[in-house]
Design goal:
By secondary structure, the chain is α/β, with parallel strands linked by helices. Helix content is 35%, strand content 25%. The longest helix is centred in the middle third of the chain and has 11 residues.
Length: 141
């Protein structure tokens, strides 16, 4: 898969075989297709360890377990939506870099996610160029 390299996992750090430190990324979307499209849009030269979650409850459980520094988050999901994930992270004082991806691009949706701590808002589906630009804008790459 582009952008995902074989890795050696050690406590607290992960490296690809070249010795580069890898970035832990959590991709949260109830659509498997949407998750795959996003993963394919990640920069091919970015060494990442990917984890996927199909809803907000899975995302919160996984985040609390591993503290991924980067989270790509859909808003509309069953069980626990993206707003609820952002609210829980905010209430717990947790501040990962959250990039929201959604088809709901209404201004009030964007205002709400930024108030809850999201660093960027991207319309789905996102192209590799848009993802690269957003990662640069939020200081990840």
């Amino acid at each position: 898969m582009p952008g995902v390299k074989p890795r050696f996992l050690a406590p607290f750090l992960a490296w690809d075989w070249s010795g580069e430190e890898m970035t832990d990324v959590l991709v949260v979307d109830d659509s498997l297709v949407a998750r795959k499209l996003l993963i394919r849009a990640l920069p091919s030269d970015w060494s990442v360890t990917l984890t996927q979650a199909a809803n907000g409850l899975q995302a919160l459980t996984e985040y609390r377990r591993t503290r991924h520094p980067i989270m790509f988050l859909d808003l509309n999901m069953p069980e626990c939506d993206g707003y609820e994930v952002l609210q829980a992270l905010h209430d717990e004082g947790i501040t990962p870099t959250v990039i929201v991806l959604s088809g709901d691009i209404q201004p009030h949706a964007q205002e709400r996610v930024f108030k809850l701590g999201a660093r960027a808002f991207v319309r789905k589906p996102a192209t590799p160029e848009v993802i690269a630009k957003v990662l640069h804008e939020v200081g990840v790459r």
